[in-house]
Amino acid sequence: MITPVPLLGSDQVNRLPERAREVVEYRKSGLSLNHIQGCPLGCTYCIRHTYGLWDQNQPVALMTDARAVEELVHHRYFQPHATPIQLFNRATEPFLPNVRPHTFAVLEDLDERELTNHVLVITRHRLKPDDIDRLNRLHHLKVTLLFTYSGIDSKKIEPYASHVAADSLKLMSTPPLRKYRTVLYWRPLVPGLNDTDEHLATAYELSRYADATVFTGLFYRDQIAEYYKTNGLPEPYTDTARRKIVPETLERRVLDAFSHSSALFRKTSCAVSYAHGLPDYNGHYGIRELCDICPLSQLELCAGAHRVPTAEDVHHVAGVLPEANNLKVVDVSERAVVVSGLGTEQPRYFLQHTLGFQIHDQHHPHHERRHGRADIGWKGTPA
Ligand code: SF4
Question: Ligand 1: which of 181, 267, 282, 357 to mutate, judged by most atoms within 8 Å of the beta carbon?
């Protein structure tokens, strides 16, 4: 008997932390819908720590699925057929038995609207043969299932075993004709925890089932570090960072272990786009050093789509956003447009996805060869 997810009343919703009440939020890989929040799986590095939601270990609904979809498609950042969508990637697990019906309700509602947007669904849960049939009935959306797999054995760090995600990836990747795509979302890679040669070889074997693989490190934010300290867990780094941490030597070893792979990516949007035979929707092609592991056919696709916008183009696109009134275009190059005056990250992602080109914040510069990654573990920076 599955317990339905309780629907909170407005008083209860108003008592949630402010950021938790933001049901639609723009994150780097897409506009994220999170009207169900709470998860019992207890991964210690969960992003819920940063939203004041860690103690919410059972899913609750902030609104109905129908209303959530309405909020999404009428959001000022939403553009039909263009904006990548992420479903339940911030505060719950989309295939928990009682969350699964909501996941399908949202996907089916969006699909009935004949929207062709990317939809990213990140999971580590057990999937079932029925899920294949139901996903195959979606006609329009470009759905990608990303299977979070770390290979971490410590139950203290990751109580829900990684092999479940591995089994689900194999199951969902088996049908040769599928409407959806599968990605091995190999993360978080943490030195000393899950980076032995054996771990890397196992991940490589698993990657052969998926349409694409992306590897990434740990988001080691202040709240997560605090939790590690309080609970006596081994702290993986001496410092925290706003970006994911992938030390240089670990990246080199991953590339060596995957030297026979033709579908390994550093960026989630690259893996998702490749799996659907499309150019990267985040426009990473300008950051040339990211592309040195990419298959030639994909390089050609991205090269064909690469258009450097003018400052006027950027202002024109930003013109629909009141929060972009103080936007300044600081620099335009083949790599990226550098801007200031946007306040938060969200409008920047709107510009990036509309233009299909990297938009960087002047105050958070990217360094060559470690784009989008923390400085920790790279030459000349703290270990
Ligand atoms: S060519 Fe570059 S931007 Fe395009 S998918 Fe490959 S790595 Fe990403």
Answer: 267
Structural domain harbouring 153: 10-290
Closest-CA residue, ligand 1 atom 8, reads: 270
> Six-digit token pair at 48?
């819920």
Residue 209 near residue 184 (C-beta atoms within 8 A): yes
Q: Tokens at residue 345, please?
A: 């990250």
Classify residue 125: in a domain, yes or no. Answer: yes
Give residue 245's pLDDT.
Answer: 76
DSSP H helices in 244-378:
248-257, 268-275, 296-305, 311-318, 346-355
List, for residues 270-317, the tens digit of each pLDDT value: 999 999 999 999 999 999 999 999 999 999 999 999 999 999 999 999
Residue 1 lies in a domain: no
Question: Of all protein residues, whose CA lies closest to atom 1 belonging to ligand 1?
Answer: 299
Ligand 1 centre and the CA of 378: distance in Å? 22
CA of 133 to the centre of ligand 1 (A): 31
Percent of the chain past pLDDT 90, that is, above it, reads 72
> Average pLDDT in the 363-382 region?
65
**Which residue minimizes the CA distance to atom 2 of ligand 1?**
291
- Pair (228, 285) in one structural domain: yes
